[in-house]
Write a structure and sequence with these properties.
Order of helices and strands: HEEEEEEHEEEEEEEEEHEEE
Number of helices: 3
Mean pLDDT: 89
Largest sheet: 5 strands, antiparallel
Radius of gyration: 20 Å
Number of domains: 2
Number of strands: 18
Strand order of the largest sheet: 6-3-2-1-9
CATH architecture of the largest domain: Sandwich
Helix content: under 10%
Shape: globular
Low-confidence stretches: 1-38
Distance between the termini: 41 Å
Structural class: mainly beta
Length: 338
C-alpha cells in the first residue's frame, strides 16, 4: 500500500482507534435478562450472509438462542436455520464485527459435506465448557460468558457441497455462510438514538449516492449499547465508528462498530451489522472511560457515526467506494428529537 493510502487510512484511525456435538433434529422452532445477572440470562444472534467476512450472497438465514442456566453452569442453546444447504459445522467464535475470529465453542458438527437442504432446528443442546484448547483462550464457561456479555462473540454456520473448488455459492461456503453477533435480550427498550448518514455530512463533503442509518439503543443502566447500521448503494465498506465531535467538525474514534474489515469488497445495500458494545474503545481519544460517558456525549449532540470505504488501490479518495476517511456520516440524535 502506497504512502498516500497509508496516510489516508491513518487519518481515519487516528485519535483513538486503539482499541462436544449437538444432535440435529428435524422440526421447525424459533427467542431477557439484566446485564448484571449471572444466572438465567438469554442471548440471541440473527444470522445472515451480510455479516460474514467477506460478505456472502445467500438466501440462508437463522437464529441462535443461548440461555444461561439458573446456576450459571450451563449454556443451553437452540440453533435454527432456513433456506440453507450442506451445513457441516456451527460454532461460537470470538471476534468483533467485520473481523474473523477463531472457534471457541462447537454447537454442531462436523458432519459430512453435501448433506442437502436443512430447515428448522439444526442443533439443540447444552455446553458446560468451551472446546478444549480453543484459540480464544477460553478455559471455562465463565470466560465464554464474559466474552458474550462484552459483545465479542458471534455464531457462524459453515457449509460445504463436497466438491472442488470451494466457495462456489450458497451451500458451499466452508468458512461460513451465515453469521450473527450474540447480544443480550432486554425487556426495556432503553434510550434510543438515530444517525442519518450521507456524504453531505462528511468534512469535507463527499459526492456519493451512498446513504445509511444507525439505530442505537442503550439499556437502562447504561452498560450495553445495542446498534444496527444499515447502508444503501455503497461499496467497499471496511470500517464504521462512533466519533466524538460537533456537526461540521472531524473528531476522533470513540467506539468501533465495524471493522477493520477487508478492502475492495464491492457494492452492498442492507444491514451492515447488528451487535452490541459494553465499553468504548480502550484508550480512545474522546476520553470516554465507560458507556455512560458515551451516552452523555450522544445526548449532548457531540457524536457522529462514520462509515469508511476503501477499494484497496492507490491513490486514495478517488470517489465513491474509496473514501478511507469516511464516505457517509450522520450526527447522533435522541430519537424523541427526530
Amino acid at each position: 500500500m502506497g504512502n498516500f493510502r497509508m496516510i489516508a487510512i491513518g487519518l481515519a484511525l487516528m485519535m483513538g482507534l486503539a482499541y462436544a456435538v449437538a444432535t440435529p433434529v428435524a422440526a421447525d422452532r424459533d427467542d431477557h435478562g439484566d446485564h448484571h445477572d449471572q444466572e438465567g440470562q438469554t442471548f440471541v444472534a440473527r444470522l445472515s450472509g451480510n455479516e460474514e467476512v467477506p460478505r456472502r450472497i445467500t438466501p440462508a438465514a437463522g437464529t441462535a438462542m443461548i440461555r444461561v442456566s439458573e446456576d450459571g453452569s450451563r449454556l443451553q442453546f437452540t440453533l435454527t436455520v432456513h433456506r440453507i444447504e450442506n451445513v457441516i459445522m456451527a460454532h461460537i467464535h470470538c471476534g468483533s464485527p467485520g473481523t474473523i475470529g477463531p472457534v471457541g465453542v462447537t454447537l454442531f458438527g462436523p458432519v459430512a459435506a453435501g448433506g442437502g437442504k436443512v430447515s428448522g432446528v439444526l442443533a439443540k443442546g447444552e455446553r458446560t465448557a468451551p472446546d478444549a484448547g480453543n484459540a480464544c483462550g477460553w478455559t471455562d464457561l465463565a470466560a465464554v460468558l464474559a466474552a458474550i456479555r462484552s459483545g465479542k462473540t458471534y455464531v457462524n454456520v459453515h457449509t460445504n457441497d463436497g466438491k472442488d473448488p470451494a466457495n462456489t455459492g450458497p451451500g458451499d461456503f466452508p468458512g461460513g455462510e451465515i453469521r450473527g453477533h450474540l447480544v443480550t435480550r432486554v425487556d426495556d427498550e432503553g434510550e434510543q438514538f438515530i444517525a442519518r448518514l450521507s456524504g453531505a455530512n462528511e468534512v469535507p463533503a463527499r459526492t456519493t449516492e451512498a446513504r445509511g442509518r444507525a439505530l442505537i439503543t442503550v439499556n437502562e443502566d447504561r452498560t450495553e449499547l445495542h446498534f444496527r447500521v444499515t447502508v444503501r448503494d455503497i461499496s467497499n465498506v471496511f470500517m464504521a465508528h462512533i466519533h466524538c465531535a460537533a456537526p461540521g467538525v472531524n473528531g476522533p474514534v470513540g467506539v468501533t462498530l465495524y471493522g477493520v474489515g477487508p478492502t475492495g469488497v464491492g457494492p452492498f445495500s442492507g444491514v451492515l451489522v447488528i451487535a452490541m458494545k459494553t465499553a468504548p474503545d480502550a484508550g480512545n481519544a474522546c476520553g470516554w472511560t465507560d458507556l455512560a460517558s458515551v451516552v452523555t456525549a450522544m445526548e449532548g449532540g457531540n457524536t457522529y457515526v462514520n462509515v469508511h470505504t476503501n477499494d484497496g488501490k492507490d491513490p486514495a479518495n478517488t470517489g465513491p467506494g474509496d473514501f478511507p476517511g469516511g464516505e457517509i456520516r450522520g450526527q447522533v440524535r435522541v430519537i424523541d428529537d427526530d
